[in-house]
What does this fold into?
Amino acid sequence: MFDLVSGNYMIQMADRGMTLATRRMGLIASNIANIDTPNYRAQDFSFEEAFQKEMTALDGQFSPTSPALPSYFPDASAASKPAPEGTAPSYERNDLNDVSLDQQTMNLAKTQQMYQLSSNFAQLELRRVLGAIRDGAK
Amino acid sequence: MTTFDTIKNIAASGMAAQRLRVQLAATNIANVETTRTPEGGPYRQKQAVFQVLPMDSGADGLPVAGVQVAAVQASNEPFISKYDPSHPDADSSGLVQFPNVNPVEEMVNLTEASRSFEASVAVVRAVRTMELSAQDLLRVQ
It folds into this structure.
């Protein structure tokens, strides 16, 4: 049976987005806490790649329509180019620590935005589901 | 599973470490002229050594980690000797051993620690905003 909430593609997508943002936030918090720890290396993962992977898994689960051909999107090949793994050291310090405060602050803001975007999507979809239930009850 | 709680604990560990660093900088600056200590001899400059504190990330397998203070080390740099025969701690040739504290270094340390502290505060602020937007999901009317 089709479940309006847990079987809802939009809500599932928002859920994955929020989970990934929280995970990335954990790594950013680790990097910022360890900004002065000798020998510490910055940890990160590419949000876009991880999200795409999750989406592929989701598509296989419950895609009502077949996905559009990749050639339909002119820039699809450029967009799916793998991002460089890890963070490039922006400067070298004497303590072998490669955390850059500017980069981490930027990632912090980006991740927070991504989380809020996902949660707004989820809220929108929940409102739509609620609207559908209300209309049905009339 | 990385939870908001884990992230807050990481930020708190960072804030605690930086606070200790500020505390040590304050101690060093306050004791810049101290020639007598319980251990004997002039005051030695103190410095915090940080190390990674692995946090439980559960099923994620992500290397989330806080920070902890491994040790507070007293510097072994040579003391600064000044000629001041009227000082009660002057030796027979009139030289007084003053602490090996460099005030400029301490000021830089202080600024760096407060910047890093602010970065951890920014993490807490961001997590709080995220939590509020998650709570907003309950307000579907």
About this structure: Chain A has a mean pLDDT of 79. DSSP finds four helices and no strands in chain A.
